Amino acid sequence: MCSHIKSKAQVLLPDFVFSLAIFIVLICIVFFMGNVMFEKSENYKETYMVENLAKNIGYYILSYTGNPENWDPHNVKMIGFSTGKENVINFTKLMFLSSMPYNKSKRFFMPNEEYHFFINITYFNNTKSVFSYGKYPYFSQDVFKITRIGILNQTVVRVEIYVWK
Amino acid sequence: MFGNRRGIIFTYDAIMALSLLSIFIFGLFIYYYNESSENIYAYIKEKKNNLLAHDIITTLHEIKFSSLPSTYQNEISSTCNIDKEVLYNKSIDEIIVLLWNKNNYTLIKNLIDYLYPNLTKYFYINITLSTSTKEFIVYSTSNTSSEYISKAYTFVTGYEETKEPLGYVAKAFATKIKKNTTLVFPISPEGAGNEGGWLTITKKFYYEQYPENLSSAIFYISIHKGRSSSDLNAVSINGVNIKDDIVWLWNELAATGRAMFGYVDLKPHIHHGWNTLTLRFKNPQYNAHVHPGSRIEITYSDDSFYEEKKNVEKYVYYEDVLSNETLNRKTGVWATMEYYIPLNSHINNVTFHLSLRDIEDVGWWWSWEDWQWYNWDVRVYVNGNLIDEIIHPSKNMDLYYDLTPVSQQGTNYIVVYANTYGDDFTGDGYTEIYSDPENDPYGSTYVFLNYTYNETSLYYGKIDITISNLLGGNKENPKTYTINFNDNTLLSTFLHVAQLFSYTIDVDVWSSAIPTTRVFSSHLPRGIPSTIYIDPVNFDVSVDNYIRMEDSCSGCDYLPESSFEYTILIPSHVGYGNVLPSKEEAINDAIQRLRAVLGGYINATEIKNETASIGNIPYLHGPVRLEVTVW
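Above: the input entities. Below: the structure tokens describing the complete assembly.
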């Protein structure tokens, strides 16, 4: 028994080499998957952020009058399209928006320059647009969209908001 | 030898363990991220739907009737029977409630389909209206559901179903009333003129009303006297002997004399203020005493409303019991006196004042009852526990006992023995438990009670009515009584047992909603009180309740003339009722509803009412909850 324990070649046995190989493979898999998970986690964070951006745009369109309340392109400090009544959109303010360059208006809607937005307002009974503004995401695959409902000129409208990168 | 084991961590087993640990950690990562991605997906879906539900609620409120096409305006106006001018500024959510009120769900559907055409291309919705009792789905795009459902709701003040949208409503208050209510003055089981000595019991009671308000006054008498009719000398009320007017219902002859139960009308003799009832009788074969069931029941009309008191202070007076010796047969007195304290209360002070007259200090005497020598002359028990034993009494004594620590919530009873115990007597001349609350309130025998309700119930604007019902049925033991309180608020309840002979008592209460509860038990000789308090918490007012009383002596039946006394609270007003076309109809409707609530016990002698027009302000009923579900 004592002579067996003293054997110096013990660590190089074939079963040890085999188990070491399995261990290394598994560690590699864990690191690889961990990396994938980390990327996913980043995606989730981004999804939250984009969702918030879209929600904010919805707020500006349906709930906020802007600053000053009756703003125009020359005196606008904060943008907003509500008439003062919840979910009722002021068409004149939409027209002011359409006269603004995209890059100027984008600063009001979102602080993050790497994202873009597109607003499309349509009636419920047809797909024809009543109002659209922004950059349409023709080729982007990272598009987040929310739909809101408002009133424009005493008619119920769908407000589609796209945020994309 | 220790140095030769350095390579042990590189064994095959250790490597495999590390591998398994890695797999486990990896599995945890997979699980966590799958959960996270599911949660994020669900969160975003629900957020989107929630925004839509909120938008629909808001837009329904912001779109006005005036913006609808004239075809819709005309149809809604004619359906609801309301002029277009009245509806002009109404919002669509209010219009939906009006149409729901008219059960026109088709028009609701058409209206929403008009406002939100092709809705189902984008999402599904339900619109639900609910009152406090019912829920109605007034619009639905699909029967199917989803796990990502969001709801938003608002309250629309409007009309309830079946209510007319235009007209008058009224509420009524009884500001002056006449009610029939009952007062019960129990007479404690007590005695005893020994072997032919006269027993005189004097009951003084206060009637605060006037004779013209008196509906009835009945004295139920339950006594154990001698066999001869001459053994009952007097039953007098305010000095008028009415013993010959007694209607005897039950009597039972025994070796110890005759137990009798009957009643007599006191109405012609009752007057305002203090009244005095006197019983004078004897029992040459045994000793004379009152059995359970003796009581005075006075029903009268009154105009008072219920007054809630948080702190209660009151004196409970007992009868004067005077026992005379005849020849050398000795004498003595005993009495069983009850008092009650509600369950929902804190006991602050209970003081018992016992006034005894002509007590003999007899030294040692032989008790045939317990078959042993005693040297006490007065004993006082509370709830079956001996609290005092006086060995060398004075002739006349005023004894004060602080019963606060020994009193309990519910029925309490005091048993006093003076120069007597069971069938043993040791007194000379006369023995008396003294009481004269009319002329000597503080020198009389009484219990002073002070307790505080733990919480008051805010029964303002209500009228209290006390009702006493005879149990009826057969003369039997055990006896069960059934009562339904018809959902009235219950303030207090008492059981007045009537027996020719008695020994012990157990009282149980139960219903389909409340399991059996033993509310009172007494196994002390002559320890059965006339009145047993049963706290209302033992009853469910919405179902039948059962009260069962049992005496361990098989021949000790309960009489049908036992009674159950209870006090209920009745509202003195009714709120707005149906919408009626004219003011007069609305007022009459309110008065009729008020009279129905007051029932046969209360007559409203003055009624005030308030009316309101609900033409352009349709906000008297509701609110109705409008809920939008999106998925």
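Note for the figure: Chain A has one domain: 13-164.
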